Amino acid sequence: MLVLGLLIASCTKDKTDYEAERDDSVVEHVDFKEAATIDSNGYSIRIEALNGTFYKGYNPIRLKVTGGGANGNANVSAATFLPIKLSSTGSETSCPHQHHLSYQPEDAYFSGYCVFTEATTNAGVWELQISFAIDGKMITARQAISVQPQTNKNLNMTTFTGSDNEQYIIALIAPQKPTVSENELLAGIYKFNKASEPTDNPLAAAYVPVTGYTLQLDPRMPEPSMGNHSSPNNKDLVQDAAGHYRGVVNYTMTGNWTLNFIMQNNNGQIVKGTVVPDDFTPGVMGVKSELHIDILF
Amino acid sequence: MKKLTFSSLLFIIYMNGSAQHQETDSTKHIEAVTVSGKGKKRMETDMKMSVSVDEFLASSESISFIKRGAYAWEPLLNNMGMERANLTIDGMHVFGACTDKMDPITSYVESNNLAAVDISSGQSGNMHGATVGGSIDLRRRSTSFAERATWSGAYQAGMEFNNKQLYNLGNVSFANQRFVFDGSASFRKAGNYSDGLGNVVNHSQYNKFNSAVGMAYKTGRLSSVRVDAIFDRAKDVGFPALPMDLWLSRALITSAAYKQLFEGGVVKAWDSKIYYNAVEHYMDDTTRPENLVHMDMPGWSTTYGLLSNLQLQRGRYSAELQLNMYENLSIAEMRMYPQDRSNQTMFAYSWPWVTTRYGGLSLNNNWALSDKSQVNLGGSLGLHNNHAKYVEFNWIFHPDAPQERTRVLPSIHASYQLQLKNIHLSAGTGYGQRAPSVSEGYGYYIYNSFDRYDYIGNPNLANEVSYELNGSVGYRKEKFGIDVKANYFHIDQYIIGRILSLGSPMNYQSVGVKGYTSLDYATLFNLSLKGDYHLSHNLHWDGLLTYARGQDERGGNLPFIRPLSYQTALHYSRKNLGIQTSLNGDLAQVHFSPEFGEDRTAAYNIWNISADYRFVFKPCTATIQVGVENIGNEYYSTYADWGNIPRMGRNIFTSLKVAF
């Protein structure tokens, strides 16, 4: 009877290994690795990104300078970071980025971010121009890098022109790997700085983070099977102290989701985005806001 | 508890029809009453040949059913659902693995491995754990040790013509001085049934296999060990009221028990048992091509437990003390498939790995004050703990919910019984609490096809607190007996689903989202009137009338409350022949709850007749039976039929039973 018991005690169908399945669908990168190294004037400039790769979209950046008496970066100052995109015609543009990097004394590196608006293609290549001061002299170096397409849709971005005729970029920053739960949603919103006065370096100020905007959020599952399913208790994204836009998104199950946005400027005027219907419409692909980002986990 | 053991005996006898003589009926009553005063004794009574467990339970006045098809009806005790009642098999807790309550544990047993069902109403049912509505304990067949080696057994086969149901049930027992073996196996296979208009009700088929083995060994003059196992498998079970069917459900229910009797002294018996059961339940919608969305809905429920029972007696005082402990893990998944199958599937837990642990001590005391009156006083105190592994699912609706929660569940009850010459009186009261069920506490988008809402559990729900009054009056004179029973429940923090303004449906058939919330209170009143009369030595009449009313704190109707219902039957027996005819029905359901998806259900009236004949050819006894249910071929559905699915029309059934 015991043998019989053991024979039939094993289940017919296996339970879903929920955690493993999430690992399969989204790869989360938490480690900074070397993405590029520039050797210049006896200094070695090491630029680190998550997974050692620059991706289209939002990338947190770390920079370390070694060699030439640069002892643990302590005497390096005023590090700047400038991504430059060269088109096939030779014109130069940039993308949203933190130009003056912040020094993190405890770990002795400079930090910043860069939102690459496109992956490297035949028609356009990216270069990084790094400058820093050491021992009273200014060092500038420039090198081509490779930007890969972002395979994690949770770090997607979108570029659009608002009703104010300004060009905007919204890039998702977090969560990299959402769960079926309440997730803190972090995004950066940047505007093309067309009013910038001619300066020495117009590329550095090509984009500026927008301040005081609101990003209204309505997450929905666009899959026809899900009938325009949404979730409760979401919070619109508003700017936090670090300048990022922070809100809450609840994902009620895994799969494809659309983050439908309506972007309001600091006067409460709608810059972009449309209200999506909240009817439950099984069998019909969900209607998306004209401002939206698709994610998948 | 006593009077209910008594009443369950009554309906066994009722089902048994003419097999028993009326004189033995009344002797049995008295036996049962005196016996249960001291504790419990196994009943060796057999049931009517062709009943399923559901049909068997349905003949009790305190039980009604929610029906989603022809199979696995959900029992309601005192018009309260499974989460308010304790459903146990020999005191063992078994929990279904289906979020839609399509596998009440009554679906994992078969009538030929059960000896009896003990039904205790309200707080008197707290012996096996905390409850509000009462307890239903399914007692397995367990043969006693015998002086001489004896074999006994029975084989039943039959057919029901309406749904082409064929069944074969067999059981065999062996007993000698030191060893007992009980074994049973059964197969049932049924096709779709037809309603009263002759239309086939699609997806109402089922296919069930059940087997049970039990072995006992006498380890000493007064002690024995016993191991038991039930294996049940249902396959291809249709649920016409649901958008999906059952592909497979399996249950393995095992236990090992040790029993020690004592001579002299206060302690009379000590009975301890450890148990393990595993239930798996897999839904299937591939049989419903009309479904827009394909989804998988597997569920698993595993329970380990321990119970230990002491029976004490001294003079006119007797007591029962029981320790109950169990741990259950309930898991249910849903995976929805996109229309373009190359896209990623969508997954969520409808039970996010919810562990329930319970430990409690129950005590029941009985004092026979005199030959005519006795007092029962009992109580229980339990600790109930829930833990959800993936509590982040629940946080979506209840962000502040703790992952783990422990509750204290007290219960107390008292009753007084008085037996005068022809009159029997009883009055009782009770107080008790129950914790929310797994679905009520942690359920996540569980689709309810009755009101077509997705249900969300709330881990922060308070305990339900029940205050109860009950009483009965009976009168019996040689040929005539009448019994009136009533109970009233006032339940604070009554748990029910209410429409949420949050969220949107997940299941495509659904119209909205409901969350389990607590009403301030709800009240439930149940009344039953039962009578019997021996018209002559051969002719016996009995009748039953039940009425119930359930209201929320604003006077609104609670769902699934049975309207006024009646049942009346005539039994004729002469020598080996028995003929029974019965009439039963409900009046129109006027107190329905539109909020819960109920509509007015019309009255119906069903007439049944059956005849049986017994042959004796030693050492065997054979009984054949032929009958017709719903002779008028009435087209009807009851208040508790999901989706107003019509019930079975005229059904001719035949069966043969050979026992030795």
Which helices and strands appear, and what pairs or packs with what?
The complex is a heterodimer of chains A (297) and B (660).
Chain A: H1 2-9, H2 18-25, E1 32-40, E2 43-50, E3 54-55, E4 57-66, E5 76-87, E6 92-93, E7 102-104, E8 109-116, E9 124-134, E10 137-145, E11 147-148, E12 157-161, E13 167-174, E14 182-192, E15 207-209, E16 214-220, E17 235-239, E18 245-250, E19 256-264, E20 270-272, E21 292-296
Parallel strand pairs in A: 3-11
Antiparallel strand pairs in A: 1-2, 2-4, 4-8, 5-6, 5-9, 7-8, 9-10, 12-13, 13-14, 14-15, 14-18, 16-17, 16-19, 17-18, 19-20, 19-21
Chain B: H1 2-16, H2 22-38, H3 53-58, E1 63-66, E2 74-77, E3 85-89, E4 92-93, E5 114-121, E6 134-140, E7 150-160, E8 165-175, E9 179-190, E10 206-218, E11 223-237, E12 245-261, E13 267-284, E14 295-296, E15 298-314, E16 317-336, E17 346-368, E18 373-388, H4 392-395, E19 404-419, E20 423-434, H5 438-442, E21 446-448, E22 453-456, E23 464-477, E24 480-492, E25 495-499, E26 512-518, E27 521-534, E28 539-552, E29 565-574, E30 577-586, E31 604-617, E32 620-629, E33 651-659
Parallel strand pairs in B: 3-6, 22-26
Antiparallel strand pairs in B: 1-2, 3-4, 5-6, 7-8, 7-33, 8-9, 9-10, 10-11, 11-12, 12-13, 13-15, 14-16, 15-16, 16-17, 17-18, 18-19, 19-20, 20-23, 21-22, 23-24, 24-27, 25-26, 27-28, 28-29, 29-30, 30-31, 31-32, 32-33
Helix pairs in contact in B: 1-2
